[in-house]
Design goal:
The protein has about 800 residues and is mainly beta. It folds into 6 domains: about 20-125, no CATH class; about 130-265, Sandwich (Immunoglobulin-like), CATH 2.60.40; about 270-375, Immunoglobulins (Immunoglobulin-like); about 380-495, Immunoglobulin-like; about 500-640, Immunoglobulin-like (Sandwich); about 640-740, Immunoglobulin-like (Sandwich), CATH 2.60.40.10. About 5% of the residues lie in helices and about 40% in strands. Strands 11, 13, 14, 17, 20 and 21 form a 6-stranded mixed sheet that branches. It has a 6-stranded mixed sheet with strand order 23-31-30-25-28-27, with no helix packed on it. Strands 1, 10, 12, 18 and 19 form a 5-stranded antiparallel sheet that branches. The radius of gyration is 53 Å and the shape is flat.
Length: about 800
């Protein structure tokens, strides 16, 4: 590389350096191309024939130092060391990595520490950046900034090639490296001479250079057409890259430039659209391709229609020149010779084909046209659910609209204005008065959705009666009498009045058990309100949340009812109906109040008997100014009890069931313990301990009283007397009973034996109607007798009910 002669086939224009390099010593290159380094030079990764001998000799006699080390320091710490031969060295990419900058040249025996007695060199990675830029008459080359990379140009354009590098370390070196620029043609061929410009053997020992075919020192542009003896540049895609030749040190080491691609067009002027057809209410974009930075006239050809029925050029776009005209403008192309302009449409745009034309204002014979059809859109509407709703519910209306960016909603129905009314306040809708409609924006995907809360009508002092209604979705603000120039769709809905059902967890509830009031509240209320009245007990209007399916539950835990007095209680469940507002409520304990505007005067119910307080509340709810509905309930609070059915005597080893009744709630758990009542001494020949069986059972619904049952397996129980204890934790109730467990009696079927009495003796036969004597069953064991003896002493313990 170092022996290459300087080529004089191109001229260069020096521009301001894009990379500011540190001041560096000039290179000294020997006749054989060796770079002799004395310190301070810039050297590049990939270079060969580097001679560090002059630096080392400055340290003293060379001696046996056949290699040196190049050391990079950061904050006085060596973070990269490169061992190279003293003479004829090559700087490899793998040795340098990313650590560029100043390196100390040290003897291999030197300590790796920066020192003023040792010299440095600057190591850099060679960089070559290529660009193809648009030439413009009258501009200095340093002002040409419009790249054509990735763009299209016409044959009327002129280009210049620019190379930016950091190879200023070769400045003023006679054998500086040279590079070739490869141009790949549309047909696939590669050339180093393009449009008369020789692009091989180019010097790049400056920070930035423009290349052109003149040897006079003044670069000129590269013409794509109009060169004598040469046809116009072929249409198609070109790619350009600066590459190091095979003789260069940097060849094949990954230091070639980037690639620039551009397209040469055949037509001098062209226009295209991103859509052949568009539904009105949407936009389309046309793209003009012409000469660089040139003004063209863009307009819609006359269609003999109203101005409001044309598409229009969106105001304020880049490239628009002169006074704004919605359908006729001057448009200036970019440096790449293109410009994109958006047209908008709306529901007033005529559904027809429009012709968009672009022409050269200085030569109207140079033009192009594109046709775009604007089509009528469509509107759809659906209502969520089955189409049957309770007044006060939220209804989701949704659909599509390809006709515009808004839908206009209104409703018709019994005794409503025939032209339609607003959904939220039932006011009349008027054509061309958008504010009178319920308006919803259309999303980018042409869908729309509106949540209609029918309870809002009550907030505005109006309401709808139960019945059938029609909801209209229209592409324009048109009422029912003016739909001929609009698209629309309808949805039928049925409105029903809200209703309420409620029940308590039982007609009779044991003290200490949970009290639940459950039911269904249709009409989409957020809450219902529960009132309870009993002897010296009032619960006034406590809320219960209504779920999405209309169900609700109000619960008082057993700890809250255990201290209630036994007796009858009255409950009222209140539904706020369509307005969602509690018409009668308790502001202060012992008082009931009416909502604003109801005209209801507060009533003190805190001193009334339970039934009278309940009747006062019901009378208030029945007021004509209160729209709330309600359900009345009664239930009894009883003293808790558990009964155990008679058990009788059971045999050891058998299985049997203990049953009983209770007024504990269905689902409550009962704890059942069966334990021996016996106590006394045991013998060494038998196991000690008492027999027992225990477990939990769940209360079940019975005919009248609730019931329970417990299975006993007496396989491991000894004959004895046993105590049964049944306890309910929820109601703090206990019951006990006892039974005897006796030895099982084995029964053997009788066997008939025929005997012959001796002669002279008579046989004895039981008289008819008399039974033979059965064996006497065994009496209870010792433990049972002792237990029976003490039974009187413990009777009140085992029979007491808590």
């Amino acid at each position: 590389m170092k022996s290459m002669t300087k080529l004089m086939v191109v001229a260069m224009l020096l521009a301001a350096a894009l990379v500011v390099a540190p001041a560096a010593a000039e290179r000294s290159v020997g006749p054989d191309g060796t770079t002799n380094l004395s310190g301070g030079e810039i050297i590049y990764v990939g270079e060969e024939k580097l001679n560090f001998t002059p630096i080392v000799e400055a340290y003293g006699p060379l001696g046996d130092n056949k290699s040196v080390k190049l050391v990079h320091f950061t904050d006085q710490t060596a973070d990269n060391t490169i061992i190279v031969s003293t003479a004829n060295a090559e700087l490899k990419k793998s040795d340098v990595g990313t650590k560029t900058g100043s390196y100390y040249v040290l003897l291999t025996g030197d300590p790796s520490a920066p020192t003023s007695t040792r010299k440095t060199v600057e190591i850099q990675i060679p960089r070559v950046d290529l660009d193809v830029r648009l030439y413009q008459d009258g501009k200095n080359y340093s002002d040409l900034k419009d790249s054509v990379d990735g763009k299209s140009v016409t044959r009327k354009e002129k280009l210049v090639f620019r190379v930016d590098t950091n190879l200023n370390g070769f400045k003023n070196v006679g054998d500086a490296p040279t590079i070739n620029i490869d141009v790949t043609l549309p047909g696939g061929g590669v050339t180093n001479e393009f449009r008369g410009v020789k692009l091989s053997g180019l010097f790049i020992n400056e920070s930035s250079t423009f290349y052109a075919p003149s040897g006079t020192g003044t670069p000129v542009s590269i013409n794509l057409s109009g060169i004598a003896g040469m046809s116009d540049a072929a249409a198609g895609t070109y790619s350009v890259q600066a590459k190091w030749p095979a003789a260069a040190d940097f060849y094949g080491k990954g230091f070639d430039s980037n690639t620039v691609t551009f397209e040469v067009l055949t037509k001098a002027l062209a226009i295209s659209s991103d859509k052949d057809s568009v539904v009105r209410g949407n936009s389309f974009t046309v793209t003009i391709t012409g000469e660089s930075v040139k003004q063209y006239r863009l307009y819609i050809k006359d269609a003999s229609i109203k101005a409001s029925e044309y598409p229009w050029i969106v105001k304020g776009q880049k490239g628009l020149k002169g006074t704004y005209n919605f359908k006729d403008m001057l448009v200036e192309t970019t440096a790449g010779g293109t410009r994109s302009i958006q047209f908008d449409t709306n529901s007033t745009t005529d559904d027809r084909q429009f012709t968009i034309r672009v022409e050269d204002p200085t030569d109207t014979s140079t033009y192009d046209e594109v046709k775009v059809r604007v089509e009528e859109g469509d509107v759809t509407i659906t209502a969520s659910g089955t189409g049957v709703y309770y007044m006060g519910e939220e209804i989701t209306l949704s659909g599509t609209c390809t006709e515009g960016d808004k839908v206009y909603l209104f409703m018709t129905g019994p005794n409503l204005k025939s032209t339609g009314v607003n959904l939220t306040h039932l006011g009349d809708v008027k054509t061309d008065v958008e504010s009178t409609f319920t308006v919803e924006e259309v999303e980018a995907d042409d869908t729309w959705s509106y949540k209609w809360n029918t309870a809002d009508l009550a907030d505005k002092g109006k309401s709808l009666d139960a019945g059938g209604y029609t909801v209209w979705a229209v592409s324009k603000d048109r009422n029912k009498d003016d739909l001929k120039d609009a698209n629309y769709a309808t949805a039928a809905i049925q409105l029903k009045t809200g209703f309420l059902t409620a029940t308590s967890s039982g007609a009779s509830i044991a003290k200490g058990d949970d009290l639940k009031i459950t039911g269904t509240a249709m009409g989409d209320p957020s809450n219902v309100y529960v009132w309870i009245f009993g002897k010296n007990k009032q619960i006034l209007g406590q809320s219960a949340t209504v779920e999405s399916d209309g169900s609700f539950e109000y619960e008082l835990k057993g700890g809250e009812t255990k201290d209630w007095s036994a007796g009858q209680y009255f409950a009222v469940v209140q539904h706020p109906m369509m307005d969602g507002e509690q018409g009668i409520y308790s502001k202060l304990d012992g008082w009931i109040n009416g909502s604003i505007g109801s005209g209801f005067e507060p009533v003190k119910i805190g001193t009334l008997q339970a039934s009278d307080a309940a009747n006062a509340l019901i009378k208030a709810l029945d007021s004509p100014n209160i729209d709330d509905t309600y359900v009345k309930l009664t239930f009894n609070i009883d003293e808790a009890y558990i009964f155990i059915d008679p058990i009788g005597t059971k045999e050891a080893g058998s299985k049997f069931t203990i049953t009983g009744t209770t007024n504990a709630a269905v689902g409550d758990k009962l704890i059942v313990d069966v334990t021996s009542a016996a106590f006394g001494p045991t013998t060494k020949t038998e196991a000690s301990g008492f027999g027992a069986s225990s477990g939990n059972v769940v209360v079940e619904k019975g005919d009248g009283a609730n019931k329970w049952s417990f299975e006993v397996d007496a396989s491991d129980l000894k004959p004895d007397q046993y105590i049964v204890k049944v306890e309910c934790i929820e109601t703090s109730t206990t019951a006990t009973a006892n039974f005897n467990l006796v030895e099982a009696v084995e029964t053997t079927p009788p066997t008939e034996v025929e005997t012959t009495a001796p002669v002279g003796e008579e046989t004895t036969t039981a008289p008819a109607g008399e039974e033979t004597t059965e064996p006497t069953p065994p009496t209870p064991g010792f433990g049972a007798l002792v237990a029976l003896a003490g039974l009187g002493a413990v009777a009140f313990l085992v029979l007491r009910r808590k």
